[in-house]
Every structure is written in C-alpha cells, then in structure tokens.
Amino acid sequence: MFYLVVRHLRWLARVPGLPQLFDALLLAGTWLFRRERLAAMEALELEALRSPGLRLKIHKLGGTEFVHDGRELGHLHGNGLLDVAVGLNAAQSLLATGQVQPHHVFPRSKWVSFQLESKADVPFALELLGKTCLDSAEASSGSTVESHYISGITR
C-alpha cells in the first residue's frame, strides 16, 4: 500500500493534511499487525532523544522527523520505514552491502531507506542517523570525519 501511494499517487502529498492522515493510517496498521515493529520505532525515538541537540518533530509529509542543529537527519514513517540522508558515497556503500534499500522517491540520491522490524534493528538505525551527522560535518568542514563518532548518536 505504501509503495503504491508513494510511487503512483505522489500528487496527493500536495493536499493539506493528507500526508499526515496517510501516515496515521500506516501507524494504526503497524499498531494492529506489527507490534514488534512499533516497539522498535518507539525504542529508536527514545534512544535518539538521548543525543544532545537532537529533537523530534512532525515531518511535513507525515511521520516523525529527527532534527539536529536545525537540520533534518531523517524521518520515520508510520510503517517503520526510516529514511536517512547519509551522503552519496555512504549511500552507495550501504546499498552495495544490502543493508539498506534505495529511497522510495529518490533512489539515486544521498537518501536511503531502512525498514525497522524489531528492537534489534535500533542500533543500526542510530548508526544511520549518526552517518547523517558525519555527512553534515564533512560537508561543512571540507574534511573526512568518517572515523569520528557523534556523541550520543553513533555508539
């Protein structure tokens, strides 16, 4: 259902309130049929909030947005799909290993998607959010910071 709407009915995102309603329906479906996935989503949000400077807000197209220093790190859809902007090189590496999927709207970009299924997926999801911080730091400083970790996000 998610992919049908996102790929073929994308224009519906322009209708005010409809993306939020759709995401709420996804969340309700997750609550009804995928309780373990819902627990993983909650765990991810709680762990992410432990990071200094990170906050959660409602994403413009529904779901929960992870924001650090005013910049979107990624967002979590109501079906447990985490979209993260990790940078083009990191995206290509992660896609090559099969750890993530191409982004459902921008498949050849710095965005990747990761499907949360259980709490065991939370550490990797946090690592992806940390890669976003690393990508941001690298872009602003012009140097490679791959070996450094952002305190509280990547463990």
Cα(first) to Cα(last) distance is 34 Å
Q: What's the CATH class label?
A: Alpha Beta
Low-confidence stretches: 140-155
Which sequence of SSEs, written as H and E, runs from N to C?
HHHEEEEHEEH
Helicity range of the residues? 40-55%
Write the layout of secondary structure elements.
Blueprint lengths: L1 H7 L9 H16 L1 H15 L4 E5 L5 E5 L2 E6 L4 E5 L2 H10 L3 E2 L8 E5 L6 H20 L14
Antiparallel strand pairs: 1-2, 2-3, 3-4, 4-6, 5-6
Task: Explain what the structure shows.
The protein is α+β, with helices and mostly antiparallel strands. The protein has one domain: Alpha-Beta Complex (Aspartate Aminotransferase, domain 1). The protein is built from 5 helices and 6 strands. A hairpin with a 4-residue loop joins strand 3 and strand 4.
Structure, briefly:
The chain has 155 residues and is an alpha+beta fold. The protein is built from five helices and six strands. A hairpin with a 2-residue loop joins strand 2 and strand 3.
Keywords:
alpha+beta; disordered C terminus; 155 residues; Aspartate Aminotransferase, domain 1; 6 strands
